[in-house]
Amino acid sequence: MRSLTIRKPVDLHVHFRDGAVLDAVVPHTARQFARAIVMPNLVPPVTTAAMAAAYRARIEAAIPEGVDFTPIMTCYLTDATDPADLIAGHRDGIFAAAKLYPAHATTNSAHGVTSIAGLDPVFAAMAEAGMPLLTHGELVHHDVDIFDREARFIDAVLAPLLERHPTLKVVMEHITTSEGAQFARSHGSRVAATITPQHLLYDRNVLFEGGIRPHYYCLPILKRRSHQLALREAATSGAPNYFLGTDTAPHLRHLKENACGCAGVFSAPVAVEAYLKVFAEENALDKFEAFASLNGPAFYGFAPSQTRVTYEERAWTAPASVSVEEHQIVPLFAGERVDWALSRGL
Ligand code: NCD
Ligand code: ZN
Ligand code: ZN
């Protein structure tokens, strides 16, 4: 039986939502991760330091007793973001980073940015403060094919943005294409990318296997196999530009199994295990600690966890669902075999 002992992983991209969903999902992330970067796309979005501090307190209240887990907060950028307020929130230790959602690109992005160049004063202030910009990198326009949105965003938005702001640090969130993987690596240490488990495990065929499969629908949408393979190569390369960010995105079952189903895969209950399956298949378990526990903290400038955890190759069955009051959320691998397990009693 193979096993692996590593510094406790960090999830650089999570959605906890709020209220009853938050209470149900936080323990799943806290079980496996030392810290997580929390996305701000609530309704209404987290746009001020006061909102973020209150949200952080609600997350902390949902962490099970005795579990050591730190949520790290982000600010949702809008056309009206004030650079001075944002930087003050960063200096006060509330906002680690700010998130750029192009308007209408994804879940709860209706308040997103309509004119990205219009935020240049904000990006300039962030660059000066060393505050990373996190991007949902899709160009959303009615004449852009959904499978081309990421590559078009890189050419039309991200490359010019990096040229206008040569010291701004950027995380390309949830990359899904070979173009994304290449771009993240071509700017030295100031650009990095998170990669989700589902984009490493699947290609777009899985969305239509025997019928439409809403639990595999997320944004950016799964791509063709050549892109999946490029992402697997990037994640397992050991390069510091790639790190773990699950994009765990809970939606209630009836809102995904719906005529207009929500985008997002809820991976928190099986997150590290899902990545380990990929790294084991690629014979790259020796690269896992860098991807899961070291590269992300190094990019953000915080220390890796001092706690060590052991995973072993031992089969168990993922839960079919996680309950939220009278509702359910269906996780990744629902009811399926999981090959890796966190060992207990260490
Ligand atoms: C995310 C969500 O549900 O909040 N959904 C998704 O499909 N990834 C939003 C996001 O990360 O774009
Ligand atoms: Zn996104
Ligand atoms: Zn996300």
Tell me what the structure shows:
- There is one protein chain.
- The protein has 346 residues and is an alpha/beta fold.
- It has one domain (10-299): TIM Barrel, CATH 3.20.20.140.
- Helix content is 33%, strand content 18%.
- The chain has 11 helices and 13 strands.
- It has an 8-stranded parallel beta sheet, with helices on both faces.
- Strand 7, helix 6 (178-185) and strand 8 form a beta-alpha-beta unit.
- Bound molecules: N-carbamoyl-L-aspartate and zinc ion (2 copies).
- One zinc ion (ZN) binds at residues 106, 136, 173-174.
Whole-number mean pLDDT: 97
Can you tell me the CATH class? Answer: Alpha Beta
What does the radius of gyration come to?
Answer: 19 Å
CATH fourth-tier homologous superfamily: Metal-dependent hydrolases
Spatial strand arrangement across the major sheet: 2-3-4-5-6-7-8-9
Q: Write out the distinct hetero groups bound to the structure.
A: N-carbamoyl-L-aspartate, zinc ion
Helix content: 25-40%
Derived structural class? alpha/beta
Spans of at least 5 consecutive residues whose pLDDT stays below 50 are none
Shape: globular
Could you say how many structural domains there are in total? 1
Task: Count up the helices.
Answer: 11
Task: Please sum up the structure shown.
This protein is of the alpha/beta class. It is 33% helix and 18% strand. It has one domain: Alpha-Beta Barrel (TIM Barrel), CATH 3.20.20.140.
